[in-house]
Amino acid sequence: MFPLLLLAAAPEQTAAGAMIPENLRAMLDAALASGNEGEVSTIVKYARAVDPLSGDTVLAIADKWRADRRAAREQVIRQASFLNLWTGRAEVGGFITTGNSETAGGTALLAANREGLQWRHKFRLQADFQESLGVTTRERYLGSYEPNYKISDRAYVYGAAQYESDRFLGYDDRVSLSSGAGYSVLKRRGLQLDLELGPAYRHTAFTDGTTQSSPAARGSLDFRVRLLPGLGVTQTASAYIQRYNSTVSTKSSLEAKLLGPLSAQLSYAVQYESMPPADRENTDTISRAALVYSF
């Protein structure tokens, strides 16, 4: 039915001389005005299937619209200062129980990204805290910064600096430095998979008073997929492999849009340390429910 509607009205003469049906031109103009790339692509697809001649003209109009938008975006990026064009998310979650047990806990995360023409910057701050019967049972802090230099639309090189503190996992302070190559294996609307691999160096101050510094290999995975409008799944994983204590961490999350910039998120994270101090467990897990604000 949709293809037939494209030819139902009298055609319009374009500047290029090709004829475009009036109702097709009206739908194309509406899609262009909305700024919706998916709607524009759909109009082009059906127009070319029904009438290749006018369809080619519709494609040319759409390509020029895309080029103009890209040029305008690049101009905005060139003129913006480093403090502009940041996007990101803030997550806050917590709980309190009373009665037979008295427990309180909370988690907070701030992640911000800036996309430039050649550079991408990623910042992350995270804190987890839990107290039971007046005794702290979890206290973890993390801060990281990762600059990316884009080689192409998919390939890039990265640097990464990360600080962690988690005495319940066996270390007071840990600093990790890394650089390497990254590649977006999947990159399309609603689906993305980024992989990174490179050498690293880590310095750890353990809770038993010992310290450890050694080279390592770092790898990471970042997978995001939109299942339905407003519903998405994210899977991240990273690993530092070294001669002594290696670390593997993963986080799986399900996020549902609530209202405007607000979303609800359920997540499950696992962190594994291959050689923690003698009185510590190898694996730590945490389940979270959080409210997310996107900006």
Describe this structure in words.
The chain has a 12-stranded antiparallel barrel. It has helices at 2-6, 22-34, 37-50, 52-79, and strands spanning 11-13, 19-21, 86-97, 103-115, 119-132, 135-150, 155-166, 171-188, 191-206, 211-228, 231-242, 247-259, 262-273, 283-294. With 295 residues, it is α+β, with helices and mostly antiparallel strands.
Strand order of the biggest β-sheet: 3-4-5-6-7-8-9-10-11-12-13-14
Radius of gyration: 25 Å
Backbone shape: elongated
H-E string: HEEHHHEEEEEEEEEEEE
SS class:
alpha+beta
Largest sheet: 12 strands, antiparallel, barrel
Number of strands: 14
Considering DSSP H and I runs of 4 or more, what fraction of the residues is helical?
10-25%
Report the span from N to C terminus. 40 Å
Oligomer status: single chain
| Spans of at least 5 consecutive residues with low confidence | 1-17
What is the residue-mean pLDDT, rounded to a whole number? 87
Beta strand %: over 45%
* Distinct helical segment count: 4
List keywords for this structure.
295 residues, 59% strand, 20% helix
Present the secondary structure layout.
Elements: H1 2-6, E1 11-13, E2 19-21, H2 22-34, H3 37-50, H4 52-79, E3 86-97, E4 103-115, E5 119-132, E6 135-150, E7 155-166, E8 171-188, E9 191-206, E10 211-228, E11 231-242, E12 247-259, E13 262-273, E14 283-294
Antiparallel strand pairs: 1-2, 3-4, 3-14, 4-5, 5-6, 6-7, 7-8, 8-9, 9-10, 10-11, 11-12, 12-13, 13-14
Helix pairs in contact: 2-3, 3-4
